[in-house]
Structure prediction request, 102 residues.
Amino acid sequence: MCEYYFDEDRAVAYKINSPVTSYLNDEKDQKPKAILVQANVKITNYRKEKIRRILSEVYPVDKYDLESAKKSFTSTMIYNLVKSARKISQDEYNQIKAQVER
Prediction:
């Protein structure tokens, strides 16, 4: 599932895939030592530039479980990316995308 945002000041549309979590295991004993949270982000602007990036962050397994790591990632990394943008629907995103691709 994706979330869509539009920043009017920057004239930028964001498509952000849901964050995905996974354990990073220790090579020696195969025990989880950290949690990796990542999300694919597509940024489109009116200069017909498209940027695709993977945002990721590593969280210690002794302080976070998978859900709390995902919540922390969403409230920090993703929030900082889209804090000046407003949430839009997929239809609005597709309209912006169509305008840019003309």
Observations:
- Strands lie at 2-7, 12-17, 20-25, 32-45, 50-60, 86-88.
